[in-house]
Amino acid sequence: MKLYDFEGFPNPARVRIALAEKGITNQIEFITIDVPNGEHRNPAFLLKNSGGTVPVLELDDGTTISECTAITEYLDHAFDGISLTGTTPKQRALIHMMQRRAEQNLLDAVGAYFHHATDGLGAKLETYQNKEWGEKQRERALDGIRYFDSVLAHSTYVAGENYSMADITVFAGLAFADFVKIEIPSGLKNLSAWRNRVAQRPSISR
User: Fold this and answer.
1) How far apart, in whole angstroms, are the C-alpha atoms of residue 206 and residue 198?
2) At 136, is the secondary structure helix, strand, or coil?
3) 84 in a structural domain
4) In a domain, 30, yes or no
5) Which of 60, 67, 132, 138 is the residue whose CA sits 20 to 30 A from 182?
6) How far is CA 129 from CA 31, 45, 118, 135, 139, in A?
7) Which residue, of 78, 107, 132, is where some domain finishes?
8) What is the structure's pLDDT at 206?
9) Which residue positions in the chain have pLDDT lower than 50?
10) Residues 9 and 35: beta-carbon distance below 8 Å
11) What's the total number of domains in the chain?
12) Residue-wise over 115-145: b if at least 16 C-beta within 10 A, else e?
């Protein structure tokens, strides 16, 4: 299998963490797509993912899978090891619910702030910006951060008592928030304790 990504970006980081959790990083050929210089918009890459985003997983038969949730879903069911998407209907539903909330209310919101209210990836790539929208999404991300603190007051992990892809997404979202200098509100002790605990996992601390 091949993974087309750009190391250090939040969405590629999510899949790299999932690969490490499943213990299959050594089964992947990593191919760098130079996003800062626009390689993700080249016709050759767009044939693999018409959305022009990374990461993209290419299977041995040539099938390409984009979107982190879909990639993680595939990896989780194709390989043994820790379950990141749940093993019962209830677990799967709760994980997907929290995964969606983590994307919409944190990671994607931070991304919108980055692309619209900051210099983002630079003038050549940021061809449309709406600063007001970006600032609104910053507030949405802060609301999302507070929400996850409240969730973690009652459960060990984001979607219950088991670590899942929802935790990976929240962790990546917080790291992205740090990068773009969105200050995480003080006093969120539940979120802080969870983050410290998750940061010690080998898939992240390595």
Assistant:
1) 12
2) helix
3) no
4) yes
5) 67
6) 29, 24, 9, 11, 17
7) 78
8) 75
9) none
10) yes
11) 2
12) bbbeebeeeeeeeeeeeeebebbbebbbebb
